[in-house]
């Protein structure tokens, strides 16, 4: 588990990258409300630990390891925010500080149970994507053989509108889905679920993750 200060730096750099904003020393000092010399010292430490790429007078970026760590922490934060709003009825614009306290204390087991209870949400209450680390453990819907049924484990959409579109097709976690037909040359596939049939392309199948159950 990262220390709170290290996690705060990594997640803030990742947030800046998501927003397309350069992670300069001055910007980080302003966002984290610390002195610039403190930021410089921490960035040097993170660089020595292989978590960031840092050089004086240049923008700081996350290494692959740093991005993995930051993504995992942002996942914790945004899942907790979602829980606070959906389960406890807190206002979305007031949950950031509370989620920041929870994210450093909640166990991995509790977080997994929270994620399951929430239905594997793709977005937090602010419409920001929740980093989805679990999907890598499951194959995509595009890999499902014809006449084979699987359970949807998670949906990793690109944006809020895309997520709503997938939900309108009943492509949500826990739903059984069967591929009933497939066009040649990597064409669209026909799927059956929730009593409905859809013909979908990679804009759908690439973002839906499954657990194979049985063949028919």
The CATH topology of the largest domain is what?
Answer: SH3 type barrels
How many distinct beta strands?
A: 7
Whole-number total of structural domains: 3
The helix-strand sequence is: HHHEEHHHEHEEEHE
Quickly list its features:
SH3 type barrels, 216 residues, Diphtheria Toxin Repressor, domain 2, two-stranded antiparallel ribbon, 8 helices, Arc Repressor Mutant, subunit A, elongated, 7 strands, single chain, alpha+beta
Task: Report on this structure.
Strands 6-5-4-3-7 form a 5-stranded antiparallel β-sheet. The protein has 3 domains: 4-65, Winged helix-like DNA-binding domain superfamily/Winged helix DNA-binding domain (Arc Repressor Mutant, subunit A, Orthogonal Bundle), CATH 1.10.10.10; 74-131, Iron dependent repressor, metal binding and dimerisation domain (Diphtheria Toxin Repressor, domain 2), CATH 1.10.60; 136-215, Roll (SH3 type barrels), CATH 2.30.30. The mean pLDDT is 88. The protein contains 8 helices and 7 strands, in the order H-H-H-E-E-H-H-H-E-H-E-E-E-H-E. By secondary structure, it is of the alpha+beta class. Helix content is 43%, strand content 17%. The relative contact order is 0.10. The longest helix is centred in the middle third of the chain and has 23 residues, at 64-86.
């Amino acid at each position: 588990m990262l220390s709170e200060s290290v996690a705060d730096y990594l997640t803030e750099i990742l947030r800046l990258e998501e927003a397309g904003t350069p992670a300069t020393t001055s910007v980080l000092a302003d966002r984290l409300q610390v002195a610039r010399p403190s930021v410089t010292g921490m960035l040097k430490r993170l660089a020595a630990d292989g978590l960031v790429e840092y050089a004086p007078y240049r923008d700081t970026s996350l290494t692959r390891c740093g991005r993995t760590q930051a993504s995992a922490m942002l996942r914790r934060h945004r899942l907790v925010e979602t829980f606070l709003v959906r389960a406890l009825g807190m206002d979305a614009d007031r949950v950031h500080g509370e989620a920041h306290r929870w994210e450093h204390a909640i166990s991995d087991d509790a977080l997994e149970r929270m994620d399951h209870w929430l239905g594997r949400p793709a977005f937090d209450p602010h419409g920001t994507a929740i980093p989805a680390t679990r999907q890598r453990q499951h194959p995509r819907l595009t890999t499902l053989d014809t006449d084979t049924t699987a359970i949807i484990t998670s949906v990793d959409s690109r944006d809020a509108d895309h997520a709503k579109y997938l939900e309108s097709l009943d492509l949500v976690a826990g739903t059984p889905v069967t591929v009933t037909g497939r066009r040649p040359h990597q064409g669209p596939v026909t799927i059956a679920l929730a009593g409905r049939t859809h013909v979908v392309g990679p804009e759908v199948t690439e973002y839906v993750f499954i657990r194979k159950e049985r063949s028919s």
